[in-house]
Design goal:
The complex is a heterodimer of chains A (about 170) and B (about 200). By secondary structure, chain A is mostly helical. Chain A is built from 8 helices and no strands. The chains are: A mainly alpha (about 170), B mainly alpha (about 200).
Chain lengths: ~170, ~200
């Protein structure tokens, strides 16, 4: 991975970002944060609806079709800006424990959201009448929110990977 | 009262040195700050898009506002608390930082923008509550709000790139500094950390 990261840092795009890093990196990071804010806002509103704490004048499927496209659109934005950050600073990102744990969490959060939204579209009636009242579903709503909160924490910890001690590949360099 | 005396007092407080001397507290404060600001911006954007008629056009505005804004305030309180704790660790540096000052000014503008809405259109919301978008003045407030909050995020991120880390106050010498153990440079030599991190140039 270190060799891949070193190679990546010699590519044209990477060199361009490194040469303009006084504005390029903070700008890309800020867009990435705006992106996670849209993701968090959307996940939060859908979770609150499942819990029955907000948007109770709307059905579940009205709520998911209001926020679902913003969630997936913003995830694409984050993928683009995230890839740019990795290309710009490959070693800083890829040679960390936080980054890979974060990616696992992102994958988990994305899969849960995708399956959930597909299911709500297909079995709308069942969701409104029955599934939404199940305790397990409400737990899953809370869990999904915390998965995305962990994604934020882990994203921040990429800059502090030494907190993981010997788990961090950076400390073995 | 002399500002620099207050800044010194904040920096010298027990709380500030506890945060500075911990490996984990500052990164966690930053993380919670980001979670908070994500919810602040995410929920404010929901309201702004409703005012613009860009989303949730069929929902009554007042209903949405009462659904969402209490969470915005809770998240804002979390963000302000974690922000203050980060501030006191290096108060003098943050206070004089251009982007920190810009961010505070933007927050004041966001507040004025919100107040101007609440005191005028917000009070008369029953008149346009069910319309698919707010009157023109409401749309202007929404555009301003989105622009200001996005700028707050940019300014906030830039603070981390333009401030250097607070000096550790923990006694070194015989005491083991955990950070020196964990943070090696590429040659494997332990590095002294007093000029890099939370928020040093290359941080973030």
């Amino acid at each position: 991975m270190k060799r891949f990261a070193d190679w990546l840092s010699t590519t044209f795009l990477s060199v361009f970002i490194q040469n303009h890093n006084s504005w390029a990196i903070p700008t890309i990071q800020s867009i990435h944060i705006v992106g996670i804010a849209i993701v968090m806002g959307s996940v939060f509103m859908i979770s609150l609806r499942v819990l029955g704490w907000a948007s109770t004048d709307q059905t579940l499927s009205q709520t998911t079709s209001r926020f679902g496209p913003w969630l997936s659109g913003s995830l694409w934005l984050m993928l683009v800006t995230g890839v740019l950050m990795v290309v710009g600073e490959p070693v800083r990102e890829l040679v960390t424990f936080s980054f890979w744990l974060k990616m696992s969490m992102v994958a988990l959060g994305t899969v849960i959201s995708a399956i959930f939204q597909k299911s709500v579209r297909k079995r709308e009636h069942e969701w409104e009448q029955e599934l939404i009242h199940r305790g397990g579903v409400k737990c899953l709503a809370v869990l999904t929110f915390f998965i995305w909160a962990c994604v934020i924490v882990l994203g921040r910890l990429i800059a502090y990977d030494h907190v993981w001690g010997s788990w961090s590949p950076a400390t073995k360099a | 009262m002399d500002v620099s005396a207050v800044l010194d007092w904040l920096e010298g407080s027990r709380l500030a040195s506890t945060i500075r001397d911990s490996l984990l507290i500052f990164p966690l404060l930053e993380s919670i700050h980001v979670i908070g600001l994500a919810l602040v911006f995410g929920t404010i954007a929901i309201i702004d898009l409703r005012l613009l008629g860009a989303a949730s056009r069929e929902r009554p505005f007042k209903r949405m506002a009462s659904d969402v804004l209490k969470w915005t305030w809770a998240a804002f309180a979390l963000t302000a608390a974690t922000g203050s704790l980060m501030f006191i660790t290096n108060a003098g540096v943050y206070y004089h930082n251009f982007y920190f000052r810009t961010k505070m000014l933007l927050l004041v503008l966001a507040g004025i923008n919100m107040l101007s809405f609440e005191l005028t259109l917000g009070r008369a919301a029953h008149k346009w509550d069910k319309a698919p978008s707010a009157p023109a003045a409401g749309k202007a407030v929404a555009v301003l709000s989105l622009a200001i909050w996005i700028s707050v995020i940019f300014a906030g991120r830039l603070i981390g790139f333009t401030t250097s880390r607070a000096k550790q106050t923990a006694p070194t010498g015989t005491d083991v500094n955990l950070e020196d153990l964990f943070q090696g440079d590429s040659t494997g030599t332990p590095t002294k950390t007093n000029s890099s991190q939370p928020g040093s140039g290359r941080l973030p």
